[in-house]
Specification:
single chain; mainly alpha; 0% strand; 203 residues
């Protein structure tokens, strides 16, 4: 059986012409730059690269600002970024290589979808707990650059401002992160899920 012809037949029977979720087998298996499998792997590497860059920045801030409150906030954020880097590297290492046209496509598609979807969900959940700490740390950094941090924190209005900023910015940052994740990963994961369902129904 010609797998490309069978794929085209299944696509024609289940999708309307021009349906964006349709993918040819060649698009998934012949390593073009626009293949969802290639794009997902590449974007995960880019995500990890940004995490490494931010971790280096936080380490530099940790060294530059000796105040214990600032260092506590930075330590929490650095641990979260380090965990994200290690978890991303683990997921990337466990992704299977792409098969050739004669190889098994469905297990590879399912591995990419399941592994990267769970990775993305984990990142969103962990980040939700990090945003308040990041907001607090950023506020403390700003205050310390303007004067004595210990003296300023003795003023109740300052504490209220920091608390309100954390409450307001956390959902905003969470929404922004989810939106960026949808752009970088969401539509490609949705494409894979559509085509996984298609292949499973054909078996």
């Amino acid at each position: 059986m010609d797998i490309q012809q069978e794929w085209n037949r299944l696509n024609e029977s289940r999708f309307a012409a021009g349906e964006p979720a349709r993918l040819a087998v060649a698009d998934l298996m012949q390593h073009p730059k626009t293949s969802p499998l290639i794009v997902l792997r590449r974007n995960a590497w880019i995500n990890m690269g940004f995490a490494v860059a931010f971790l280096i920045l936080f380490v530099a801030l940790f060294v530059w600002y000796p105040h214990p409150y600032i260092r506590i906030c930075l330590s929490v954020v650095m641990l979260a970024y380090l965990a994200a880097i290690l978890f991303t590297a683990y997921k990337l290492r466990n992704l299977p290589p792409l098969p050739d046209m004669a190889g098994a496509l469905l297990p590879v598609m399912k591995a990419y979808h399941d592994q990267l979807r769970s990775w993305l969900d984990w990142q969103e959940k962990v980040a939700l707990f990090i945003y308040p700490v990041s907001t607090l740390g950023g506020g403390l950094l700003g205050i310390s650059s303007e004067g004595n941090l210990d003296e300023v924190l003795q003023k109740p209005p300052v504490l209220w401002i920091l608390a309100i900023a954390a409450i307001l910015l956390t959902p905003a940052a969470h929404w922004l992160a989810r939106w960026m994740g949808k752009i970088a990963f969401g539509k490609y994961l949705d494409q894979l899920k559509t085509n996984i369902d298609l292949l499973e129904k054909s078996e």
